[in-house]
């Protein structure tokens, strides 16, 4: 019910609300995660080969997701799942 002189008619704003902050976690882009049945999987580059691996996911936002099990620090993740030819 109070007025704020800084707010003017026709102005818009973009706001981000931080509702949770996690430190020392592994996160990957959402695009790198895919489902196989009820399991979540990821592709990991391993010595010139690509390994499909089951993972357990944690919290996510619109861009990335926390991997709580199945991935180690420093491992390289394939961003897009290759299509079969």
What is the element string, with H for helices and E for strands? Answer: EEEEEE
- Coarse structural class: mainly beta
Could you give the count of β-strands?
Answer: 6
In angstroms, what separates the terminal alpha carbons? 62 Å
Radius of gyration from CA coordinates: 19 Å
Shape: elongated
The chain-level mean pLDDT equals: 88
With helices defined by DSSP (H or I, 4 residues minimum), what is the helix count? 0
User: Helix coverage percent of residues?
Assistant: under 10%
Given as residue ranges, the uncertain stretches (5+ residues, pLDDT < 50) are: none
Search tags:
elongated, mainly beta, 85 residues
Mind explaining what this structure looks like?
This protein is mostly beta strands and 85 residues long. 0% of the residues lie in helices and 42% in strands. It has strands spanning 26-29, 33-36, 39-46, 49-60, 64-69, 76-77. Strands 1, 2, 3, 4, 5 and 6 form a 6-stranded antiparallel beta sheet that branches. Strand 3 (39-46) and strand 4 (49-60) form a beta hairpin. It is elongated and about 60 Å long.
Provide a brief overview of the structure:
This protein has 85 residues and is an all-beta fold. The chain has no helices and six strands.
């Amino acid at each position: 019910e109070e007025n704020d002189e800084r707010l003017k008619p026709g102005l818009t704003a973009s706001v981000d609300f931080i509702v949770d902050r996690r430190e020392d976690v592994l996160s990957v882009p959402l695009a790198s995660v895919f489902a196989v049945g009820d399991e979540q999987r990821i592709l990991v580059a391993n010595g010139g080969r690509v390994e499909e691996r089951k993972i357990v996911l944690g919290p996510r936002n619109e861009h990335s997701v926390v991997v709580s099990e199945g991935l180690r620090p420093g491992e390289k993740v394939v961003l897009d799942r290759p299509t079969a030819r």
